[in-house]
Amino acid sequence: MTLHIVTISDMKLSSASEDVIVTYSLGSCLGVTAHDPKAGVGGMVHCLLPHAGAAREKARANPFMFVNTGVAMMVRRLMDRGAEKRRLVFKAAGGANMRGDNLFNTGERNFEALGRLLERNSVTLAASDVGGVVPRTMFLHLDTGRVVVRSLGEEKDL
Amino acid sequence: MIRRQEILETVSRVVAIPSCAGKAAALLGDPAAEMSELARIIEHDPGLTANLLKIVNASFFGGGKPMRTAGEAISRLGTLEVLQFILSTGVAPSFVHRIDGYDLAPSMHLQHSVTVAMAARELGKALGLDAPDHTFTAGLLSGVGKILLGVYVQVNAKAILDLAMEEGLSFDQAEDAVLGINHAEVGGILLESWGLPPEITGPVRHHLRPDKAPEIDTVLDLVHIGNALAKMIGVGLGVDGLNYVPSVAVIQRLGLTAEIVDRVCANVVEELRSVRHLFVQCAEDACPL
After folding, report:
1. Where in this chain does the entry annotate a coiled-coil region (chain A) (predicted)?
2. B4-14+98-285 adopts what CATH topology?
């Protein structure tokens, strides 16, 4: 088994069934997984911000920093590896906010950006664990597409 | 408030906090080492910065204005021999591998501290403020109280978190309720006891509740928001997560918008890549923070 670690503004994918992809310490960032069970390929992206408009030069250098460009780029790479768009199962975790924060709302804006992107592509999010004030760690198991979220020492399947 | 007294007594006994002294000492022993690289290591390490400022501000080197940054301290001291003396004598023998109470893995607290410092500095730049250099130092040291509580006092952060979740309190409010003190206040008191100047101890002490500070201070405002941004970015989050309340007054005073915040976060994440090797170095056995 190889553990692929996704850092902030990063994306990893794999088609090896024994592999696991993980991202640690999701705060307001959004972790998104996409897995094609038939092609046996899946990926995870860790996006810092909702829209590339916040810093266009950075989006060109690293599309994975932003939800709208990062998720789209991940899907493109998965399709290059044999995935079919209609078979992809999407799950999301993270998107927390500071307690009582009504200005930054970064977590909420990140999740909204994902919703708009998926809606435009007529895709439904299969599961999510977002919001609140808790940090999260997210795992994608390539053998089954199982997604596990760990938060405050407790794990649950998405 | 018995717990508060116990914590304050512990503060008075703590000589120094763990740091990347081993790495710095190794550099000092290498004739080919660059002074700038040493300064860079010190500037990104809360323990070394605190120790350095503590010693350089002590009466032994007395006279002149108090030093507020690692760079100032290094140029004041001047010679490698003196610096080596500081590093070899100023560091506590009780190194730690993790901060158990706060559920922070090795090097995580360091990463978080550096991110707060970078975010505070970057925010000052984005707002066009002529923020003083010690904004970085104050941000870097803002979480020092957590090390003390987690390592020397061994707080049960789970009990604090449970209270916060049940009562809808921020983590520092819950610390107050359970311990009679919060980690920002502990950090401020510790650094005051080491003789660090009020320009640094003030922002550390009040960084979670700037509205309670005796006066408005730009450095405090920047560190307060820098701390919030570091937590949002997610570097080195512990059990307390994002459970802190940003000050509306500070947000208004700085004229913050979501666009500014996004830009600063993007810049900080990019900047973090350039110092990643420092985190790797500091996670090594010689430097187990």
Report:
1. none
2. Hypothetical protein af1432 (1.10.3210)
